Amino acid sequence: MTSRPGTNATQPTIPMWVGGREAFASDGATLDSFNPATGEVTARFPNATADDVDSAVAAGIAASREWKRTTPEDRGKVLSRLAEIIERHAEELALLDVIDNGSPIREMRRDAGMAVDALRYYAGLVLHVRGETVPTSFDRLNFTLLQPYGVVARIIPFNHPFMFAASKIAAPLAAGNAVIVKPSEHTSRSALRLGELARGIVPDGLLSIITGEGRVAGDAIVRHPEIRRLAFIGSADTGRAIQAAAASVAVKNVTLELGGKNPLVVFPDADLDRAVLAAKRGMNFTWQGQSCGSTSRLLVHRDIYSEFIESLAGSIEGMKSGSPVDESTETGSIVNSLQYDKVRSYIEIAHKEGSRLVTGGNVLTDGDFANGFFVRPTLFADVDPQSRLAQEEIFGPVLAAMPFTGYDDALAIANGVRYGLTASVFTESLRTAHRFARDVEAGYVWVNEVSKHVHGTSFGGVKDSGLGREEGIDELLSYTQSKNVHVNFESSEA
Q1: 403 near 302, Cβ under 8 Å?
Q2: Active site annotation includes 348
């Protein structure tokens, strides 16, 4: 991470967790962790090497041999116990994410709760890792076994650090695997704390937390020949690079939950007050727009467009920017300088492309904001659907609004990007709602709703938004390999 002037305070190094023990980078290298709201160095942690990844894989292989022999019920009990200890430490974990990530405390508190829920959900699904019996003939039996991979890996992003670290180990462990977690180098503290809390609950070696740069530690994980199952959450460009790197070493099962430029479509018969609130909420300004599922393209029917934009602007303007630790703060700090610069560059691009700035678009630099990365929630209107603002994922608090004239026009705009993660439609027409849900190119569709995730409903994208599904039984089964067994027990005396 890049240092900032006047912030190079000495910090002790927080160790990784490898094989159930504390571990430091084999070459002693470290990275500093910065609070994006204050610019202060808050922690130091290992910048892992390929050798460190080898150690985690070796520990995982050894531990998985015994783990796959444990009963499903016992695996479920481990997940339940882990959920209990996380629940007891939820406030601490939320605060670690606030310090690393810059999002408001109340949002990070919800993230910790969602991680607990996910662990309990998969603890209850362990008996569903089962095959099927296929009828063949009177004296033959054909059945399938679902077996774990051994060691799998999860590479997670910076926007929901603890929620992803804890919830994304649930399915792999429930299925009988060991798992290596590689958090973002910008937000590693809560994942490291997870490793510490898991000690004495999760058997040694089953969970390793590897920190460091993606180009070194992340690449070593992707290219390791013994990691045959890998899942990544992040940008589309990085996802494609991971596919290529993994394929250069071995045939691997790689699933990807990638970016989005997601449409929220408002038809003229919609409940406008409800849709205005949803447009603000769906943009995830409370996470500074740093969410792959954000409905960052707002499509409003021309008949109600002006009224809608005016009402939405007033609602956005009322959002309170502030310190992420303040309970009243609604929108906090961008996670790091690179992302901050990216968001600012897209605001400039929007101006050059001729989009109309309705509200926001400015950075906050006075007083308590002086050393942080604060950008006001931003709304541009009259955006060209083919412009960069409408086509490219920003991953920041910038909402692009544009009018449409009818169903076909709305659908063409909604589907006119390379992404297809989420989509939302607001209408009182059952016919319009079902047509849109059928026709829109997205993996997760809301009708008169935004942002809501439900355990047991699989989440994932189409097109450049990814491969695979998570948050349901599909995720659990994706961490198993199917084996077919054909038995002939015909009697030789027949």
Answers
A1: yes
A2: no
